[in-house]
Each structure stands twice: as structure tokens, then as C-alpha cells.
Amino acid sequence: MPGFKLVGREARQKGTVVKVGNTEFGSNKVAIIAGPCAIESEEQLLETALAVKEAGAAVLRGSAYKPRSSPYSFQGLEEEGLKIMAKVKKKTGLLVETEVIDARDVALVSKYVDALRIGARNMQNFSLLREVGKSQKPVILKNGISSTLDEFLCSAEYILAGGNKNVILCNRGIRTTEPELRFPVLSGSTALLKQKTHLPVIVDPSHSTGNSSLIVAASRAAIAEGADGLIIEVHPSPEKALSDKRQQLTPGQFKSLMPELERVAKAVGRGL
Amino acid sequence: MPGFKLVGREARQKGTVVKVGNTEFGSNKVAIIAGPCAIESEEQLLETALAVKEAGAAVLRGSAYKPRSSPYSFQGLEEEGLKIMAKVKKKTGLLVETEVIDARDVALVSKYVDALRIGARNMQNFSLLREVGKSQKPVILKNGISSTLDEFLCSAEYILAGGNKNVILCNRGIRTTEPELRFPVLSGSTALLKQKTHLPVIVDPSHSTGNSSLIVAASRAAIAEGADGLIIEVHPSPEKALSDKRQQLTPGQFKSLMPELERVAKAVGRGL
Amino acid sequence: MPGFKLVGREARQKGTVVKVGNTEFGSNKVAIIAGPCAIESEEQLLETALAVKEAGAAVLRGSAYKPRSSPYSFQGLEEEGLKIMAKVKKKTGLLVETEVIDARDVALVSKYVDALRIGARNMQNFSLLREVGKSQKPVILKNGISSTLDEFLCSAEYILAGGNKNVILCNRGIRTTEPELRFPVLSGSTALLKQKTHLPVIVDPSHSTGNSSLIVAASRAAIAEGADGLIIEVHPSPEKALSDKRQQLTPGQFKSLMPELERVAKAVGRGL
Amino acid sequence: MPGFKLVGREARQKGTVVKVGNTEFGSNKVAIIAGPCAIESEEQLLETALAVKEAGAAVLRGSAYKPRSSPYSFQGLEEEGLKIMAKVKKKTGLLVETEVIDARDVALVSKYVDALRIGARNMQNFSLLREVGKSQKPVILKNGISSTLDEFLCSAEYILAGGNKNVILCNRGIRTTEPELRFPVLSGSTALLKQKTHLPVIVDPSHSTGNSSLIVAASRAAIAEGADGLIIEVHPSPEKALSDKRQQLTPGQFKSLMPELERVAKAVGRGL
Fold first, then answer.
1. Which NCBIfam families match (chains A, B, C, D) (predicted)?
2. What distance in Å separates residue B178's CA from the closest CA in chain C?
3. pLDDT band at A236 (very low <50, low <70, confident <90, very high)
4. CA distance C270 to chain B (A)
5. Which residues contact residue A1 at a Cβ distance below 8 angstroms, ignoring those fewer than 6 apart?
6. Quick check: A175 and C177 CB within 8 A?
């Protein structure tokens, strides 16, 4: 009685490939999403976009709506941010994704981006899950910070049950008792998710480690374990970022990371 | 830099008393909320209401909207449930509270009840927090299942910053590594919350223990530690409940619990 | 298949009363153990002993062997500490207990004290458990900082299976994801232990909260929940203590705590 | 003030290479330890040894002393097991390691094996740490199941401070709130350990996942992240094993794992 049906491997032995534009998640190629935590300005986003495109990223990330624990933290540029993202998409030809945090915003946000992201805090915001379930827009669903794998899959089930089969699971780790890692991904959890579900599974090394010096290692590990993609934070000047300063790579760091990831992908029989 | 201002003790040394109807939360009297997990029918709710009223409860609980991990679990009677609650309120004279799970429902739900409840899964549903912040209806805010105390207070801050000062914090425990307790309340956490904030703090022994045989002990402990109230699940036939079978008390068990709680309340200088 | 037999309620419906000298653990009276974290000098221990005796404590605590995470932290006075404890026992007439951390020391330590304590780090030091199992000296067994209740009971089973039935369980809490409480006791865990085992269960509010300002609240809660005793750290000058500065009460604080505990004990039908 | 000095990177920038016989831990080659959970018979150990040797393992593991949560579980063959290990070492030429669980056994166990292992339950058995600190025998130190990285390093410090510099850290994961993984390794923790200490770090994919179907993935991830070695459980007939049935590989599975590991090792610039 795990509480899910459509997302289980029993329902579909073959892995599902979810397409964001022409980029496949769940195929033999490992897909890389990269970009800043938050959209801060057109200059910031464009500079990042050009850099991650050149390094080989397939999709640009960037949040216009920032759910923040404190009401006094930077909350994102909202629709202005979406407009910036649309401009940068046009200028660079990159696919783009962004977070949606309110069921009332799904239609609006969908106009601007190629994929919707649902963050950890909203994994069990069932109104939001139902709303994106009515759409056909690809959804990147992150697990909650202390959800079990089965609870995570149940949340994906809400979206599939609503009619949207284009769900990409994002393993972003959970809160543990180790104080020096933010919300670490559990080794084995990506592989176990892939056993339990046919949906593609990507990993977020940035939010899970919370430490830019660990992102190379965590990214290599994720691909070695079988992740179908990564979502990595990159910012032109991480130390000046309005959020997540400690965990964003510079464009230069990202550029040198990519060939490392390609070597590991090849070692496990995949490409980048 | 804890991320909150209005809810801190620094902002207000004196404890805030939040009134739900004529019942005070945060005064010298410990307030008891009781009722079923979910509203299942008028008969079920009325029978429970009469029983908990006679035993001394001040407020009737009952959910019309049930956020459930699985889309295939019972989701509540929705507006029909609210109408049942309104009828039972009229027949019994009890104050009533219910959960609101969607920012779009706040106005509707507010018409039927004396207090709104925000559940653990929505502690960081900031759209919902902002919406109830615009209201003056008392809000019972539960902590998320792995939130820290500071994150909990930050979420309350969203409501106060929005203009609604009538917030009652509900300590419902967190997920731990102990498999035999559901989401246990941490001993000391209620007392520490009371040091950090001026808002009233109640405890939920039902959802935290997940075990009806532990509710007497956990309720006594909560009052002894300094809780300003309790919210306890009571169902006419727990074994037939559509949700939370294992943790609901029978009316008879609730009736015998109340004098026990009164003795502990008096031992710590309070009343019931 | 819980892995234990002798300690289960199935093996013995009636609660076991363990006697330390003439003090009963598990009877209708709640027994209080108090004293410093570590034995630092005869003056320090004697001053504390006289104060806790006057306030009504039954047993004096104090560690001569200190298991410390770092090899560079104060490790205790070792046998010199035991000799100090013996002197203070003679001068005050108090019963005394201390920690034993090595199977090779059991015989030596037993000569000096009325009860042996096994700390959290040694809950699964099976050589040590077997050694105290061969003795008839009462053993206060603390749970490991992330043990489950069943693992805790299995460790007690080692001692009973060895032939020593005089085991007092000490619920000292576990490591959780809440950063502001040290190793909090889970509300409901003491009551659940009492359902599962016939052995007496005491609570350690000092090591669990790690915060002297929470000890009154946590102690009241423990008794209200059904604890058979408490073990509380008291130091003449907590700020000068060689270990656990933040969590030791002053003699004055302990003195004012005791009548509070007595009121709660009476409210739940017990005495102090 | 992390509580350690000798084990920190500050004390020694260059990574330490610990030699077990002629096998290096911490050099450019990833070292593989493999063998059964427990030594059950000469036939069982020899069969396993021949298989893992042929597949390329450098060191044979096998426990003669089994610390078990329950006193009624199989406790190991003790000295008889050590003698079996010595015979198998002679017949196969493999290096061998085994667990030591009691300070009084260090000298005896050291006569039979090339490296001592200290298990998770004994990470803070300081008597045992001090005893192996007096030896020059290599020590494989596992972290406790809810230790922090700093507490782990402090325990290693006890051994180095005692005079034994031959310490290999074994990252075996911690207890988390995910019920489907036993004690998972946190992604990023191996890389972070390597930043903090100069000691070699190996990973235990068997005890961390607790699931033989996840060992390939977890092993690949560990090497990709930067582990200096792995310790993997292999048993001729896992379903008949006297302990850890679910997490031991068959010799055939181990044989097919090794080339996979070699590919990942090469992808990160190392060999096997």
C-alpha cells in the first residue's frame, strides 16, 4: 500500500523520457540544468546564460519567485523576473525553467518557461500539484526536506493522476543530523528511486551540499550512481548573490566541471 | 539574525493572549480543543461535539479539507464538511476550527469557523500565510515535520507581518529516527518556544505520538512543561475513522483524561 | 522478533522495583538523583552533596571517568575521584552513583559506589554490559544518542541475561534535527518504554536539553509523563565547571525545583 | 575548537598513505576490501577469499567477534574464527582484517590479522581507541551511526594521539529518517572528510545501504566522490548467511562489479 500507482515501475517497466524542448531527461544522455539561484537582473542572468550554454548546459535555471523562510529575505523579482528570463531565452536560445510557488500563478509562469519547478517546501502543496497536473508543461518536482522516498513518489502521483505525465523528479536531499552538510542526498537514494519509478531522476548538488567546494564531488557521485541529470547553481559573482551565496559556482568553475562529468557519464555507459 | 522580529519576546515581553470567541489562549487557563481528525458526517461530528463539550473542551476541531500524502486517500468533505461544522456549532454552541489548505479558500473557510488551522505541510506555504495574514481570524499554525523552532517562528512572522496578530503556535513534533513514535514533540521545545516568543503555544499529542495509548501521558507532559493548550483528536469509533484510526481517543477516554489534565494544570499553577 | 525477552512486559506484568540502598526506583515514589557532571574536587562534591541532600535528593551523582569526544577535553579524576566520592558518601550519608566506562574497571568502581551508570556512548559496549551483568550492583543504563527504544531494551537484556536484574533505564534523549536542543527526550517515549518493559525508567533533563533554563520544564514534563525518577546535574558554580557548563543547575535552582516536582508528582498520584 | 589536531589537514597538507601489508590506502589506487560479514566456517571463508582474490580485492574482511544489538543473535566464532582467518590468509596469500570489540582483545586479535577494524558501535569506546593507539597495526575506524564528521575525527585523534598514525577512516553512513536505506552515506561527506583530514577515507556500501541491489550504484558513487577504497560484503550464499543476509553480494556479483569500479576510478584519474 505505498499510495501510488501511475509512477511505479509496476505501471511501466521502461523508463520514461521527459522532453523539455528538445532535451531529453531519462534517455542515455545526462542532462545539465544550470543557472543562478535567483534572477537578479538581465545582466546577471544573461552573463550566466551565455557561460553555461558555452559550457554545455541544456537548460537555464533561475527563480523569479523565491520562497524564503523569513519574510525579510529577498523574495525574487516575480513577474519582472519572468520577463527577464524570456528575454534571455530569446537572446541565447537556451531552454528555461523556473519555480512556481502558488497554484494561482501556474498559467502565468507557464507562458514564460519551458519547464516548471516545484520546490522542496511545496512538495505537499497539493493545490499546486493538482494545478500543474492539469497542464502538459514538464514539471521538475523536488522532494521535501524530510520526505521519505514513498511520500515523494506519492506527490508525483498527484501530478500524473491529474493528467500530466511529464514529471522529472529532483533528488535534493534531506535534513539530517550532520551540521556541516545542508540537506544531503543519501547515497543509494537515486538508485532506489530509479528502481521504484519509471520517471527520470535528477540531482541537485547545490542545495544538498550547500557548499560550492563539494559540488564537483557530489555531481560526479550523482552521475556515477545513475542520475539522469543535474541542476547546478551558477552565478557570475557568488559572493554578491542575493541568496545562496555559499553554494553557487562561478562560470569558470562550472566550465571546468563539465568535462569531469562527461568522463564519469562515459564510465557508466552514458553521455552528457 | 533569526529572521523574525514581531513574534520574538524582544518585541513584546508580556505573553500575548489570543482569543477564539471568548476562549483565551495564552492566559492562565489551559484551553482544550478536541474533535475528530476529519468531518465525516453530521452524526459523527455532532456526537463528538456533544461529548467533548460535556467533558469541558472549549473548541471543536474537525477537518473538511484533508491534505493527504496519497491522492487515493480520503480528501475530506470540503465545503459540505464546512456546512456540517456550521450546523454543529449552532446546535452545541461550541467554538469551531478547521484547516485551510489553499490561499484561495481562506475567505470561504473563514465564514464558517472561529479559527483557521494551517497544517504541518503548509507551514512554509507562504501564499497561504500571506493570505491569512490579511485576515483578523485567529490562526492555529502547526510546525512543519522537520522545521526548526526558528523556521517555525519565521512562518508565524509572515502572518504577523501581514497584519494578523492572532496567531496560536501548535507544537506538533518532528520526524525523528525513532520508528515507534510518529512525529514526537521534543521535550523542552514548548518551554523554549515560550522563551523565544510571546505567542501562545499549544501541543498536539495526537499527531505527535500517533498512538492513542500515549495521549494521556503526552498531554500531561505538555501541560506540565507549560503548554497553553492542547488539540486532541476524539472520534466516536476510532477504528472506523476515515483517517488517523490509531491516534483518536473515544469520547469515554477523553472524558476521563480531562480531570487528569486539570490536576496537572493546577500543579503548575494554572487552571483548565 | 524484538530481540529481547527478560526485559519485556510479557515476561513480567508487574513493574520491577530496583533498590539502590534503601531508595526505590519504580515504586510509587519518584526518586531524584542529583550532583555535578564530573567530580572535580572534594570541596566541590561535598558542597553539592550537602545542598542536594537538604533539598531532598536520594542519590548523589558524579563522574570520575569522563568519556569525552575529544582526547584534549577533561577526562575525569579517575580513581582519585572515586575516593573523593567515598569520602563524601561517608560524610553525608548519601547514596552515590558513578559512570563506569571500561569492563576492566567494573570491580574497582563497584567498591566505591551504590550504583553503576553506563553512559550513552557505551549502550552497545557489549563487553561492558556483560561485565555488569555478572554483578548484582544496580545499573543505570542510558540509551545511545540515536538508539531506538527496541535497541535500548536489547542492551538492557544483555545485563539481565547475564544475571543482574537490577537495571534502571535512563531516557536521555536522542540526536534530532533541532539545533537548539541538545539530545531531546521524545515526548511519549518514557510512557512507551513503560508499556514495553517492567524495568523502572528515569529521565535526564540535563543532558537531553543541554540548557539549564529548560530543566524545570523538562523535569516537570518527565514526571507528568510517568518517569520513575530524574537525574539532574547540579554544580556549585556551573560557569566554572570543567564540563557541561550550560546545563548544570546551581544548588539554589535545584532547591526551588524540588517542591515544583513534588506538586506534579502528586498530581499524577505519586510522591517524591 | 574542533577537538582534534593531529588528524586535521592543517597538521599535514599531504594525504597520508596507510599501508596494510603492501596495499596502499590513500594513494592513487582505490583499494578494495571484500569478504563475508562474519566468519562462519573455513569452507565459507576460503571460498569467498578465492573468489574476491580472483576478482581483484586486496584485503579479505571477516568478523570473528560480532557486536549484535540482541544477545540472542549470532555473536561470531571468536578465537576459532581468528584461526580460520589465519589459515585462509596462508592458503590464499590475501591480506586480512577483522573487527576488535574489546580493549582486552587487541593483542590477541593483532596476532592474526593485518589490520584491525573498529565498528560503528565502538567509535567512542575510548578504552579501545587508546589500546589500538598503542599498537602500530593499521586501524580501520568506522564512524558511529549518528556521529558528526567532527566527532568522527576526534575519535581518530585518540588513536593518533596514542602514537598510531596508521588510521583509515571508514565512512559507513548515519541513521536518517529515510526508512528504506539502512544507514546511508551522505553525499558530500566523503569529499568533506578528505578536505578536513589527511587520513585515507574508504566507504562501506554494504552496511550503509543495507540492500545488495544498491551496492553497485553506491560503490560507483563513492569512488566518483573521491573515496580511497571500499569495504564490500561478499558471501557464497547470502541467503544462508548468519548475519546481514540482505546486503551481501554473491561472488559472481562482486566479480562483475569490479570492472565497473575500475572504469569509474579511471574517469576520476585513479586506478583500482
1. DAHP_synth_Bsub, PRK08673.1, PRK12595.1
2. 5
3. very high
4. 12
5. none
6. yes
Whole-number pLDDT of residue A126? 97
* pLDDT tens, per residue, chain D with 272 residues: 569 999 999 999 999 999 999 999 999 999 999 999 999 999 999 999 999 999 999 999 999 999 999 999 999 999 999 999 999 999 999 999 999 999 999 999 999 999 999 999 999 999 999 999 999 999 999 999 999 999 999 999 999 999 999 999 999 999 999 999 999 999 999 999 999 999 999 999 999 999 999 999 999 999 999 999 999 999 999 999 999 899 999 999 999 999 999 999 999 999 99
A154–B122 CB contact, under 8 Å:
no
> What pLDDT does residue B259 have?
98
B31-64+75-266: CATH, from 3.20.20.70, 3.40.50.970, 3.40.50.300, 3.40.800.10: 3.20.20.70
Which residues are CB-neighbours of C36 under 8 A, at least 6 positions away? Answer: C44, C45, C48, C61, C62, C233, C234, C235, C241, C248
pLDDT for B13 equals: 96
Which CATH superfamily does the domain covering A18-66+73-263 fall into?
Answer: Aldolase class I (3.20.20.70)
Report yes or no: B11 and A78 within 8 Å, Cβ to Cβ: no
Separation CA B61–CA B64 (nearest Å): 10
**Second-level CATH architecture of D18-267:** Alpha-Beta Barrel (3.20)
Percent of chain A exceeding pLDDT 90 equals: 98
The model's pLDDT over C99-112, given as tens digits with 9 standing for 90+, comes to 999 999 999 999 99
Using CA atoms, how far apart are residues D29 and C164, in angstroms rounded to an integer?
51
* Window 9-48 of B, Cβ < 8 Å to A: none
Cβ neighbours of residue B259 under 8 Å, at least 6 residues apart? none
Q: Nine-digit cell at A221?
A: 557521485
Q: Is A256 on the interface with B (CB under 8 A)?
A: no
DSSP strand pairing (D115-118 vs D95-99): parallel
> Given C148, C184, C268, which is nearest B264 (Cβ)?
C268
Amino acid at residue number B165? K
Contact D3 C125 (CB under 8 A): no
Handedness of CA C105, C110, C112, C114 (dihedral sign): positive
Q: What is the C-alpha to C-alpha distance for residues A268 and D264, in angstroms, rounded to an integer?
A: 7
| CB proximity under 8 Å: A 156-195 to B | 157-158, 161, 174-175
C-alpha cell at A47: 552573463
Q: Which of B186, B189, B209, B246 to mutate to test the interface with C (most CBs of C within 10 A)?
A: B186
What is the pLDDT, as a whole number, of residue B52? 98
Chains touching D (at least 3 CB pairs under 8 A) are: A, B, C
* Chain C neighbors of A181, CB-CB under 8 A: none
Q: Shortest Cα distance from D112 to chain A (angstroms)?
A: 34
Closest CA to B241 of B55, B105, B48: B48
Contact between D214 and A226 using a beta-carbon 8 Å cutoff: no
- D186 vs A176: CB contact, 8 Å cut-off? yes
Q: How many CB atoms lie within 10 A of CB D208?
A: 26
Give the pLDDT confidence score for residue A160 in this predicted structure: 98
What is the distance of C-alpha A259 from the center of its chain? 20
Q: For domain C22-100+143-152+173-267, which architecture applies?
A: Alpha-Beta Barrel (3.20)
Asked if C177's CB is within 8 angstroms of A176's CB, the reply is yes
Cβ distance of C177 and A177 shorter than 8 Å: yes
pLDDT tens sequence across C49-87:
999 999 999 999 999 999 999 999 999 999 999 999 999
Based on C-alpha coordinates, what's the Rg of chain D? 17
pLDDT at site C161: 98
Task: Give percent of chain A with pLDDT exceeding 70.
Answer: 99
Residue burial C20-33, b: 16+ Cβ < 10 Å; e: rest: beebbbbbebbbbb
